[in-house]
């Protein structure tokens, strides 16, 4: 992604069970739909890499169809997308191709026939945390992220076309952020893809299409589409300079800024968010977003304590209620704060696995760690919601640095990248809420990453259920232990940035079977294979 915001780390707010395989898959299909010039009528999905192995278990199939219907990632109707598609006259099919070649483990090829009979082929990748990229359109390599408003232009490759496109856009006061032209060979068909800082009106599309070499123009509204006028250009430029100062490339830069300014990590990251919004020409609503994220976290963490939520795959459901009952009976082996963190974190995974609404933090599979820790601290130590929002901002800062310099995707880096990152984020947040220094926050995050280093991603039957639910509880416990050590003033021989780099290298060294494929680790045991539809009962996947 070009620019990460807190919404990319504490979020997206989405329907479970997987940020990469549910929200990211939906995002690919949603962008594919926006590339259609008429209503899609037939869609064929070919699933590659880990998508081929976790299609049904992660709700990828329902999400892809939901995206083609134009549903948002947090729309509960995703669970019923097949029926909605049939009612809308959209035919769909799925073909897993586990042996096909791919560049990213979460890849899908989509062939669309629209109402006018036009065909289009698209390759998309889900790159982690709910983000997605379109990599290929009709056989031509491209890059469309959907982060900014994208204008996708199919044209003949000839002189003067790019100048015409640029003029058509600038005449309406819209600023071009990036421009790329893709072609197979000179003088043949080509695609020009532009990202803009503002929303694109229909008149711009009409103006571009006036050139005889332009075949068609498609608009994909971005996540941060705005309406900046020419009069605001100077303010935006000044804000961009401020953002450049605050767009911390690594932990050392953020820590140096905090120590120089006297700010906490949450304050520094919120300053960055405000500068990012201003640089894009809109007012920041980070506080409102954190209110929403916290409300979703609380709902997902508390409902299963009273009402069991059976999972889509049938492997979990009711665990949080049992933990709540044990606590009420006074049977806790852990102290009350840790017992609450365990119950809350496992409850979120029940909500997630039932395709309920959760806030990925940083992913759906690790969504229970941060609310588990923060809500437990609120109950045991009386922190306010405003305090918890500070904690979310601090956690977001740590997650941003990990995402920027490594990965939070289980398909790329194993469970260490998901649960490990979530534990690091929660540990830093706990330290800040307890009055620790920014240096201690980074030390706590390093502790958690170190303690989770090498953790593999091995979901039984490809479901985000087992061992994911219990690992969220373990992540919450690790976060609290890591925070306690840091608050005691115990430092680390290896700093945060080097720890993140070590985690990245370990993730790259893990074999495919141990990175969310459900083909290794605990998922490959005979008992686990008994829950996998593609396995012979009693036989190991390996």
From TrEMBL:
Any Pfam family matching the protein: SDH_alpha
EC numbers on record: 4.3.1.17
Protein family: Belongs to the iron-sulfur dependent L-serine dehydratase family.
Any one GO molecular function term: L-serine ammonia-lyase activity
Recorded catalytic activity of this chain's protein: L-serine = pyruvate + NH4(+)
Essential cofactor(s): [4Fe-4S] cluster
Domain ACT: 150-222
Alphabetical keyword list: 4Fe-4S, Gluconeogenesis, Iron, Iron-sulfur, Lyase, Metal-binding
Name recorded for this polypeptide: L-serine dehydratase
Pathway: Carbohydrate biosynthesis; gluconeogenesis
PANTHER family, sorted: L-SERINE DEHYDRATASE, L-SERINE DEHYDRATASE 1
Keyword hit for Thylakoid: no
PROSITE patterns, per database record: ACT (PS51671)
């Amino acid at each position: 992604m070009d620019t990460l915001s807190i919404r990319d780390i504490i979020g997206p707010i989405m329907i479970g069970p997987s940020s990469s395989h549910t929200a990211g898959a939906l995002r690919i299909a949603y962008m594919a739909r926006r590339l259609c010039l008429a209503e899609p009528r037939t869609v064929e999905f070919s699933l590659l890499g880990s998508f081929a192995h976790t299609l049904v278990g992660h709700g990828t199939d329902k999400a892809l169809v939901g995206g083609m219907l134009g549903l948002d990632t947090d729309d509960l109707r995703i669970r019923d997308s097949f029926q909605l598609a049939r009612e809308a006259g959209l035919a769909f099919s799925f073909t897993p191709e586990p042996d096909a070649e791919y560049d990213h483990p979460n890849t899908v090829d989509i062939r669309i026939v629209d109402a006018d009979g036009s065909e289009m082929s698209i390759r998309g990748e889900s790159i982690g945390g709910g983000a997605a990229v379109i990599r290929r359109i009709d056989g031509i390599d491209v890059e469309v992220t959907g982060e900014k408003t994208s204008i996708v232009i199919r044209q003949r490759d000839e002189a003067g076309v790019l100048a015409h496109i640029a003029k058509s856009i600038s005449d309406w006061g819209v600023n071009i952020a990036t421009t790329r032209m893709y072609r197979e060979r000179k003088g043949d068909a080509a695609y020009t893809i532009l990202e803009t800082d503002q929303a694109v009106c229909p008149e711009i599309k009409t103006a571009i299409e006036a050139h005889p070499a332009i075949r068609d123009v498609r608009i994909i509204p971005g996540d941060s589409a705005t309406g900046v006028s020419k009069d605001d250009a100077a303010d935006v430029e000044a804000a961009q300079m401020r953002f450049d100062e605050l767009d911390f490339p690594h932990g050392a830069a953020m820590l140096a800024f905090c120590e120089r300014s006297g700010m906490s990590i949450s304050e520094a990251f919120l300053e960055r968010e405000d500068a990012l919004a201003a640089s894009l020409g809109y007012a920041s609503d980070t506080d409102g977003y954190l209110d929403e994220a916290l409300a979703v976290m609380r709902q997902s963490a508390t409902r299963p304590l009273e009402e069991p939520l059976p999972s889509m795959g049938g492997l979990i459901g009711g665990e949080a209620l049992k933990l709540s009952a044990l606590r009420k009976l006074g049977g806790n082996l852990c102290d009350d704060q840790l017992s609450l963190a365990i119950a809350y974190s496992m409850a979120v995974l029940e909500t997630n696995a039932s395709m309920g609404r959760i806030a990925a933090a940083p992913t759906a599979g690790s969504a229970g760690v941060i609310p588990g820790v923060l809500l437990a601290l609120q109950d045991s130590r009386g922190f306010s919601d405003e305090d918890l929002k500070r904690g979310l901002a601090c956690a977001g800062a740590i997650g941003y640095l990990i995402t920027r310099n490594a990965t939070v995707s289980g398909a790329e880096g194993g469970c260490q990248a998901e649960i490990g990152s979530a534990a690091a984020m929660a540990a830093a947040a706990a330290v800040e809420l307890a009055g620790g220094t920014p240096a201690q926050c980074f030390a706590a995050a390093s502790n958690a990453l170190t303690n989770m280093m090498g953790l593999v991603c091995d979901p039984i039957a490809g479901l985000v259920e087992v061992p994911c639910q219990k690992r969220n509880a373990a992540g919450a416990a690790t976060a609290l232990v890591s925070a306690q050590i840091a608050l005691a003033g115990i430092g680390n021989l290896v700093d945060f940035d080097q720890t993140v780099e070590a985690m990245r290298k370990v993730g790259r060294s893990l074999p495919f079977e141990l990175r969310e494929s459900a083909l290794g680790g605990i998922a490959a045991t005979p008992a686990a294979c008994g829950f996998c539809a593609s396995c012979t009962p009693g036989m190991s996947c390996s």
